TrEMBL record:
<dbReference type="InterPro" id="IPR011333">
    <property type="entry name" value="SKP1/BTB/POZ_sf"/>
</dbReference>
<dbReference type="GO" id="GO:0010105">
    <property type="term" value="P:negative regulation of ethylene-activated signaling pathway"/>
</dbReference>
<feature type="repeat" description="TPR">
    <location>
        <begin position="730"/>
        <end position="763"/>
    </location>
</feature>
<feature type="domain" description="BTB">
    <location>
        <begin position="179"/>
        <end position="279"/>
    </location>
</feature>
<dbReference type="Pfam" id="PF13181">
    <property type="entry name" value="TPR_8"/>
</dbReference>
<dbReference type="InterPro" id="IPR011990">
    <property type="entry name" value="TPR-like_helical_dom_sf"/>
</dbReference>
<comment type="pathway">
    <text>Protein modification; protein ubiquitination.</text>
</comment>
<dbReference type="InterPro" id="IPR019734">
    <property type="entry name" value="TPR_rpt"/>
</dbReference>
<dbReference type="InterPro" id="IPR044631">
    <property type="entry name" value="ETO1-like"/>
</dbReference>
<protein>
    <recommendedName>
        <fullName>BTB domain-containing protein</fullName>
    </recommendedName>
</protein>
<keyword id="KW-0802">TPR repeat</keyword>
<dbReference type="InterPro" id="IPR000210">
    <property type="entry name" value="BTB/POZ_dom"/>
</dbReference>
Amino acid sequence: MRTFLPSESCKEAQLNALNPQSWLQVERGKLFKFSSQSPSSIESFIKVPEPPVLPFFKPVDYVEVLAQIHEELESCSPQARSSLYLLQYHVFKGLGEAKLMRRSLQSAWMKSSTTYEKLIFGAWLKYEKQGEELISDLLLSCGKCAKEFGPIDIASEFPSNLHVSSIGVAGTNVNQISRIVTFWIGDEKIECDRQKIAGLSEPFNSMLYGCFRESLREDIDLSRNNISPSGMKVVREFSSTGSLNEVPPKLLLEVLVFANRFCCERLKDACDRKLASLVSSRQDALELKEYSLEENAPVLAASCLQVFLHDLPDCLNDDQVVQLLCNANMQHRSIMVGQSSFSLYCLLSEVSMNLDPRSDKTALFLERLLECAETNRQRMVVYHQLGCVRLMRKEYDEAEKLFEAALNVGHVYSVVGLARLGHIRGHKLWSYEKLSSAISSVNPLGWMYQERSLYCEGEKRRGDLEKATELDPTLTYPYMYRAASFMKMQNIEDALAEVNRVLGFKLALECLELRFCFYLALEDYEAALSDVQAILTLSPEYRLFEGKVAAFQLRTLVREHVENWTTADCWLQLYDRWSSVDDIGSLSVIYQMLESDAAKGVLYFRQSLLLLRSGILAISMSEPHIHAVAGGNRLNCPEAAMRSLQLARHHASSEHERLVYEGWILYDTGHCEEGLQKAEDSISLKRSFEAYFLKAYALADSSQDPSCSSTVVSLLENALKCPSDRLRKGQALNNLGSVYVDCGKLDLAADCYINALKIRHTRAHQGLARVHFLRNEKCAAYEEMTKLIGTARNNASAYEKRSEYCERELTKADLEMVTRLDPLRVYPYRYRAAVLMDNHKQKEAIAELSRAIAFKADLHLLHLRAAFHEHTGDVLGALRDCRAALSVDPNHQEMLELQSRVNSHEP
């Protein structure tokens, strides 16, 4: 329950009153007793913090903003593209779309028009890919380089000052002046070619050939110009050869300063580049950065900056680096990063926020970012973000000004910050009215009602939270508040139902934590242990009760009150949970099994399967939703899955096993061919189930040729001949059945599914239902899916699939159930909208799609709504949705065609 803004109503004293050691004794029978507690003590035990004020850009109509960005990208100059992709990144961040955020950064990097942009966005992508060094190493082991975001050669990226030609000799008495001029520095003389020195700059030319007294002298004293004899010899050498040879860094700096003073542009450029090539460490960069700014040496400045940025986030723990970056004035920023100051401080603010949003350096970076903002859209992003930081730091007056400024330039979400400030100052009614005003002024969104609920009580509060869930069912706070309220009234069944409702489609750690508290209160320690072990699987360092207690500590205490399972018990429990599609329960059992001496590599691999992969492969590209598995991919935790895979690799008991896990790591990060190679390497050492399974999976995904199905069948058959447990055998049979269906071999497919069901691979019901349907046995298909619904713990996808095998009214009922169980599934919205459109209810059809689009940026929903707008003659609406959809997937061919068609009708 960690938030950016802790609840003011959840005071420190109340949290301190909850001492885990006092209410969770090690001896049995001395635990917290729910039935004996008064409502007030239960309330102090089960606390739901207020939803955080998110420091993100959250436009009221994100579709409109994405469409505007896409339209501008189509017509803007190359120099403007990166800043537009950065704004797109902020929109996707506000929507919680991590993959789209990274793709926007990738686009900004690829479309960079300057070295500075390439440097900044390359460093940002490198920062986003922290912890992926193993993947780079694995790619290298496959003969593929993955250093795309490594340091760039700054000097080669900057255009050389070749346009600065030698200075022509001035004056009328050239032939009367001595060819040699002697410069005295102290007692040492340096003889130079007068004409070549004069050619270095206009000041030297004027001095040596103009109307100055020096033009008539053969000896000139330079002792007061901060140049040493050695430095002057370097200048003389450059004037003759036009290049710098091996010159010590300190001497180069001296020559750079001299060249800048006398406007020797070619010499200065050469020193700038030479010094830039010597920057290899943070200390080098710190020593040279101030020189680069004071002497206007852009290549050196950019090279120093690159060192800092490629050392993120560690370099922000260095006060010297932070001070240097924060104190740079406008002129210095121009030298350091050209016109890309906003992008630079956006990156620095992001990293600093992740380290500590309340820190002084975070506030300083955001202040610099605000100074660099050039457009209202940029300002609203920064005003709000800095307002959130000031709020967290309890600097309320400054926060109020910033939220007001953000609101004034159009960022309606900043009203949340103003409302919180009003509440803190005791103006609860003002906060309520502020939210009411926002609700009445725009098309309301779920967060508006959620926020307003904080400033009212009783039925009004419950009504606002119901409305919040109706408009945005992905908001977790309304479910948690209702669940806690039911629990305080000792309405246990409804409390658990409410929290399970959100956990059915969104694995939110704060909801698992709340349910863990419920189970403790109910003295159901086995269920409590299951939840805390699932939490630790997803986030090993997680702390409960707003960071007060380590989850691992609570797990140790609860563990004492649950009977120990033998290894055999654990496998039976895992088999039961896996078969009933209870992914959270399966994660918990695996966590417990990892404490034993069992083969840890195998267990960590099982963990990764639950966290990411459905285990279904498909050969044909038709009907992609056909292969959705009941409960498959529901957890969708790629970071935790990758951590589990890396642990599996680390604990592999043999070389061939390690190669399989490496293959899955590569496959899951988009390197399919390299994953296939690892599978082949593993098979060459030993024929194993997992190696054949990986090869079949990777081959089916990497080949667009349907003829490869026979190879995939052969690989899966080989896998089934190798030793493995029934969990994996069931998955292999299910996959084999899927391939047979795609090939039209329905009898063989049915045999596979039936054999999978015999070993309780529950998901095989879906495959068998498909076989029945293809045999024109629709009733049998419906019954098969009904069996799956009755068995699977998480069955939204089963309802969705069953809806294809029944009449319209039953289909409608099943799809309504899908939306209730998992509002993130888009097929039900599309189906209902299509039915409405068929019935000529265009407004209702568009409203149905808009309902889901409000909280989910989905390509298919936007595509269908664009088509509906086109059908009804709303050209601007269709064009807006096309452009927003192309922001989600710029290469979607159908959207490109639709946009082209709509463009031809644009007024």
